[in-house]
Amino acid sequence: MVSVCPAIALRPQRFGAGAGDDRPGVFNESFVSFLIQLVRWNSRIEGGNIRNDQDNERSYSMTRPSLYKLLIAISAVLFAAQGVSAQQFQTVNMAVPAKSFQMVIYPVAQQKGYMKEEGLDERVIFVAPTTSIQAMLGGDVQFTGAGSSALVSIARGNTPLKVVVATNDRVLQWLVTRPEIKSPKELKGKKIATTGVAAIATFMLKQILTKHGLDGNKDVNYLDVGQGNQLTALLGGAFDAAVLSVEQRYTALDKGMHEMFFMGNEVKNSWGTLATTDKLIKENPKMVAGFVRATLKALRYVRQDKEGTVAALLKFSGISRQQATRLYDDLIGTFTRNGVVDDETQRNDLNIIRQVINGNETLANAKAYDFSFAAEADAQLTKSGWKP
Fold first, then answer.
1. Which CATH class is domain 174-265?
2. What is the CATH number that goes with domain 90-167+274-384?
3. 42, 123, 228, 270: which sits with the fewest CB atoms below 10 Å from its CB?
4. Using CA atoms, how far apart are residues 62 and 67, in angstroms rounded to an integer?
5. What is each CA distance from 144 to 105, 110, 188, 270, in whole angstroms?
6. In 3D, which of 236, 102, 230, 101 has the Cα closest to residue 176?
7. Span 59-66, mean pLDDT?
8. Three-state DSSP class for 336?
9. Helices vs. strands in the chain: H and E counts, helices first
10. Nearest 5°: phi and psi at 40?
11. Mind giving me the DSSP string for 185-236?
12. 189's torsion region: left (phi>0), alpha (psi -120 to 50) or beta?
C-alpha cells in the first residue's frame, strides 16, 4: 500500500501559458507542477505505508497501480477538457486601417463578448489598406475595414472579394477652406489639398463642385500633399482648401478656418465598409455569419450606449474624453442601423470606383457586395428581441 499525498492541492483556475495568459489548450506551470510533484512523490515510495508529515491523525492510501490509474484518468480528463476549449474559439484577424470612430465597433465586439458568443476570438490589428487586401487573399487576415480598397481591387483585377457590412451610410469627409472663402464658386482657380488626385474622396469632391456650378474636373487644382498632411497644408497658407477627416476638421475650425460642406450631405455613398474573401464565404460561411452578427451587435451597442462607446473610443484611439464625446455627438447619426446600404448607394460607390480606375464599365452590385449575412443577422437579432 502507498499513500497519496494530500498536501498538494489543485485549485480551480484557467490553464494558460503563464500568469494572465488565457489561451485555450495550454497548461500553465502550476498544473504541470502538480502532476510532476505527484509522480516524484510516488517515486520515493519503496513499499509499505507512509505517514503524511502534515497529518498525524490520518493517512490516505491506495495501491500503486491504482495511483497510476488515477493520475492517467485525471490527465486524460483535463487534457480532453483543454482540447475542447482549444476548439471552442476560432481565431479571426480583423485588419483596421486607422483608429477612427467607425472602426471602434470591432474592439467593442470583442470586449463586450459578442465575438466569443459566436465562437470567435477576434484580434484587431492595424494594417494599411492595400496591405490588408494582400494579407486577406493570403489567408493571414480574414476581414478588413478597408472596404473601399477592396472595391478598387475588385474593379481593377476581378479580385474575389465582397463587401459584407457598411458601417456608415454617409461619407465622413469635409471640405474646409481659408476663412475668406465663403462659397464653392470662390474656389475657381484655387488649390485644394487632398490625399491623392486619384483618391475616392477627390472624385466625390469633383461631383460635388460640379453640382455647385463649377467644372469639378477643370476649375480647381487638386494636389496630393500626402496622407494626413492636408490640415498642415491648409493652415500653412499655401493652399486655399483641404479635404479633411473629422479630427482634422475640429482643429481647422478651432483655428478659424471655414467649413464649406460636409461631403456626407452632398453625395449618397457608403463609408467604413467591411470586406472579406469569396473563398471564406464559400468555405466557412459559419465564421462569416458569426463575425457579421457580432459586428451588428456592436453596431447596435454603439448607437445606444454613448458612455460605453466613448469609453471604448478612449481606449481604442487614445484621444481625450472631450474629443471622443464630440465625435460621438457629431457622427452617431451616420451609422447604419443594420450594416446595409441600399442599391442606389452601392451603384454610386461603384461609379466612383470606375472613375478612380479610369474604367469603362461599372460593376454590377452583386459582383462587389454581399449583404445577405448582415440582413439575416439583423432579422435574427430583431426577431429575438436582442438588445445590448
1. alpha beta
2. 3.40.190.10
3. 228
4. 7
5. 13, 15, 38, 15
6. 230
7. 44
8. coil
9. 16, 12
10. -65, -40
11. GGGTT-EEEES-TT-HHHHHHHHHHHHTTS-TTTSSEEEE--TT-HHHHHHT
12. left
- Nearest-angstrom CA–CA distance, 298 and 111: 10
| pLDDT tier for residue 87 given thresholds of 50, 70 and 90 | low
| Cell numbers at 322, concatenated | 472631450
> pTM here?
0.77
Nine-digit cell string for 312: 471604448
Q: Which residue has the cell 496591405?
A: 131
SS3 state of residue 168:
strand
Neighbours of 85 (CB within 10 A): 16
List for the chain the helix, strand, coil content (%; round to 5): 50, 15, 35
Instruction: Determine the Cα–Cα distance for residues 275 and 94; give it in Å rounded to an integer.
Output: 10
Give the angle subtended at the CA of 353 by the CAs of 269 and 139, to the nearest 5°. Answer: 100
Distance of CA 91 to the CA centre of its chain: 13
CATH 3.40.190.10 boundaries in the chain? 90-167+274-384, 174-265
Between CA 353 and CA 347 the distance in angstroms is: 10
Q: CA–CA separation, 242 vs 175, rounded Å?
A: 6
Residue where the block lists cell 474656389: 187
